[in-house]
Amino acid sequence: SRLRLRAPAGRLHAHGPEHQLTLYALSSLASFLVEQNRCEEAEPLARDALAMHHALDGEDHPESLKLMLLVGWIALQLGREEEAVELYGRAAELAVARYGEAHAVSLTHLQPLAYLYLRQGRHVQAREILERCLLASRSLYGDEDVHTLDARYDTLAALQESEGHAAALAALEELVADLVRLLGGNDERTRRAIQQLEQARDGRGARE
């Protein structure tokens, strides 16, 4: 870790502040510090790397988008939730504008925004984004790929939160059947969906 911590200074000295290797070193160190829960130290490095990428490669460059999520995650960990929403939203907007929705990069940036909305209790907004992700995943990977199965689960979880257990029950039963058929009953995804289905049945029964 000491070598890694010294890397940006060495790269700055050898290559200058706007060299791609310098940017890589800054972003790598910022990511490393985040992994160590040292977000306050990571933030200025991540912001510097993001500003440099914007200047050199453009705001919608894949590395710029990745760093935008990193800065947003740091803001979230430091208690600045609305700033994180703004950064996640901007990254998703730029990714979709550049690649279209049915692209892996766009999904990578839409999904974190949806999860952040779920965290905030903004279930309807989260569900709208997750439904878009599901359509994109089906177009990219097909109905039986794990990406699509995960997207179905996430969408149904948001539906339960926004409209109640009964609204998602039939679709959850269908998802569990597909997961058992495709992945088996012991797969983690299958077990998770079965648990969600049981909760939906219990929730509906409690209201009846």
Task: Give short descriptive properties of this protein.
single chain; 208 residues; elongated; disordered N terminus
Overview of this protein structure:
The protein has 208 residues and is mostly helical. The protein contains ten helices and no strands. It has helices at residues 2-15, 20-35, 39-57, 62-77, 81-99, 104-120, 123-141, 146-163, 165-183, 188-207. Helix 1 (2-15) packs antiparallel against helix 2 (20-35), helix 6 packs antiparallel against helix 7 (123-141) and helix 9 runs antiparallel to helix 10 (188-207). The radius of gyration is 20 Å and the shape is elongated.
Compact overview of the structure:
Helices cover 85% and strands 0% of the residues. It has 208 residues and is mainly α.
- The portion of residues assigned to helices is over 70%
**Nearest-angstrom radius of gyration?**
20 Å
Tally of strands: 0
Output the number of helix runs.
10
Biggest β-sheet, characterized?
A: none
Distance between the termini: 58 Å
Query: How much β-strand is present in the residues?
Result: under 5%
Summarize the helix and strand pattern as letters.
HHHHHHHHHH
Low-confidence stretches: 1-15
Helices and strands: which structural class?
A: mainly alpha
Nearest-integer average pLDDT: 87
The outline comes out as elongated
